[in-house]
């Protein structure tokens, strides 16, 4: 499949994530300044959408129980989650955001 266009840069808010569907996967696309990130839109603790939580300091927070995940590595940075989320490569081309869902940058397989 390779890199797929998922949204424009303007569609991704500064302090929230945007849920996008790519094939069978739902991703949470987030930004920190000029950097864009894509993680699987599923908290590993409670299986709820991470895209409904807040984004700050390069972390995304699960709205249900407060688990936080590093957007670069997918590693949990706050309990109760202990397992990482899948992180996908992102390319920004002009004002469009592309994600490669065939590859994870942290080796975690999407569930």
Question: Would you mind describing this structure in some detail?
Answer:
There is one protein chain. 0% of the residues lie in helices and 42% in strands. With 111 residues, the protein is mainly β. The chain contains no helices and 11 strands. The protein has strands spanning 3-8, 18-22, 25-32, 35-40, 55-56, 59-61, 68-70, 76-78, 87-88, 90-93, 96-100. It has a single domain, classed as Rieske Iron-sulfur Protein (3-layer Sandwich). The chain has a 4-stranded antiparallel β-sheet, with no helix packed on it. Strands 5-6-7-8 form a 4-stranded antiparallel β-sheet, with no helix packed on it. The mean pLDDT is 95. Strand 5 (55-56) and strand 6 (59-61) form a beta hairpin. It starts with a strand and ends in an 11-residue tail after the last strand. The radius of gyration is 12 Å and the shape is globular.
Distinctive features:
111 residues, mainly beta, Rieske Iron-sulfur Protein, four-stranded antiparallel sheet, 11 strands, 0% helix
């Amino acid at each position: 499949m390779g890199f797929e266009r998922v949204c424009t840069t303007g569609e991704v808010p500064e302090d929230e994530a945007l849920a996008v569907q790519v094939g069978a996967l739902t991703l949470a696309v987030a930004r920190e300044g000029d950097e864009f990130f894509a993680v699987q839109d599923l908290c590993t603790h409670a299986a709820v959408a991470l895209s409904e939580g807040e984004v700050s300091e390069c972390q995304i927070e699960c709205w249900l129980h407060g688990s936080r995940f590093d957007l670069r590595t997918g590693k949990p940075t706050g309990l109760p989650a202990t397992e990482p989320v899948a992180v996908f490569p992102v390319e920004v081309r002009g004002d469009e955001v592309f994600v490669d869902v065939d590859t994870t940058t942290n080796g975690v397989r999407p569930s």
